[in-house]
Fold this protein.
Amino acid sequence: MGYRQFWRQVMSLALPVAVQSALVAALGMADVLMVSHLGNEAVAAVGLSAKLNFVLILVMAAIGTGCSIMVAQYFGAGRRDKVRQTLACALLLGTLVMLPFTLWLLGWSGPLIRLGSSDPNVVELGTVYLTLIGLTLFTTQGIIVYESAMRSIGRADWPLKYAAVAILLNIALNYWLINGGLGLPALGVTGAAIATVLARLFQFGWILWEQQQRPELRLKGATWRALRGTRLPGNFIALTWPLVANFTLWSAGSLGYHLIAGRLGTVPLAVMSLLAPIEGMYHAFFFGLVSACGIMIGQRLGRDQFAEARWLAHRFLWIAPLGSLLLGLMLLAASPLLLGWMQMPDADTAYQTQLAMVVMCLGFWVKVFNMTAIQGILRSGGDSRFCLGMDMVAMWIIGLPLTWLAAFFWELPFVWVYAMVLSEEVVKALGVYWRIRKGYWLANLTEPEERPTAVAEPAA
C-alpha cells in the first residue's frame, strides 16, 4: 500500500470518528460547564456520576469492540450475511449484560455515589443523576453496537450524522432543563440527566428506523434464526468475554483513581471532573485514528494479507503518539485561555486544575500509544487475553497501588497523585510493544470454511 492510498483510507475512516468523538467529549464538557455555576457540589456530583456511568460505558464498548473486530474481518472476507448475524449477536448479548446493571442503578445508585464522596450534597445530587442515567443503558448499548458495525463496513459517516444531531439536541435540552424556562422550573443537575435520557432515546430510535431501510445492516427474522445453526455466537462470546472482563476491570480501576481523588476532598474531585471532558476531547482526535487502524488491519487479516497488516501496524504506531504529543504541547500553550472559559468555583480549584493539565498534556501521548497498540492492533487479531493480562498487571499491581501510596501514605500534593496514574501507562507501553513485535496478533478469525483465497500482497 502506498502512502497516498494509506492516508486517503485513514482520513475517510478516521475523520468522521474523530469528529464524533470530539462531539461526545464536548457534550461531557457541556454537562460539567452547564452546572458549574451551581457550585463545587454540582460539578463533583455530575463528574462522579459520569465516572460511574463510564464503567458501564466501557462494558458496552467491550461488546461493541467484539462486534467491530468480527464485522471488519467478515466484511473483508466478503461475508455480508455474517456481518448482519454478528450485529444481531452483539445486540442480544448487550441487552442481556445491561439488564442487571439497569436494575442496579435504578435501585441502588445512592451507595455507589457514597463510595466516592462523603459530602451529603454531592451524594444527594449524584444519586438522582445516576438513577436517571440508568434508564439509558439499553439504548446506549444499542447505539454503541450499531456504531461499531457501521464503522467496520467503512461507513464511519453514518454514526457521525446520528451523534451530531443527538448531541445538539442534548445540549439544547441541557440549557432548558438545567436553567428552566417555557413554563418549566430550573431542575439543575436533575435536568442534565433528563436531557441525556431524552437525547439517547431519540438517537437510538433514529438509528433503528434508518438502518432497517438499508440492506447492509438490516436485521430480519431469518438473521436471528440463523444464529441457532452457526458457530458464530460461540465464537463471538469466546472473543468478547476477555474484552468484557478487560474493560470492566480496567474501568473499575479507572473509577478507583476517581475515588482516591474523592477521598482527598471535594476540590480534587472537582478537578478530576473538570479534566475528564478535556481529556476526552484530547483523545477524541486520536480515537478516530485508532479506529481506522483497527478497521484497516482487521479487514486485511480477514483476507489473510498479513504482511500488509504488519506494515499498517508499524505506520500507526509512530503516527498516533507523535501527533498526540504535538497536540498536547498546543493544548498546554492554550491552557490559560481554556481554563479562563471555565467558570471555576474558586481560585484553589483553578490552580490545581492548571497543574494537572501540565501532567496531562506532557504525558498522555503514552496513553495514545497504548490505545493504538491495544485497540488498533492486538485486538484486531483477537489477542484479547494478553491485553486483559497486561491491563490488569499495569493498573492493579502498578498504577493503583502507587497512586494510593502517593495520596494516603506519602501524602504528596494532588498534582503528584494525578501524575502517578501515568506509571500504569509506562509499564503497559513496554509490554504491548513487545507483544506486537512477536506477531501473535496476525490471525484470521473468520471460520475456516468461509475464508477467501489469499490474494497477492504488495511488498512491505
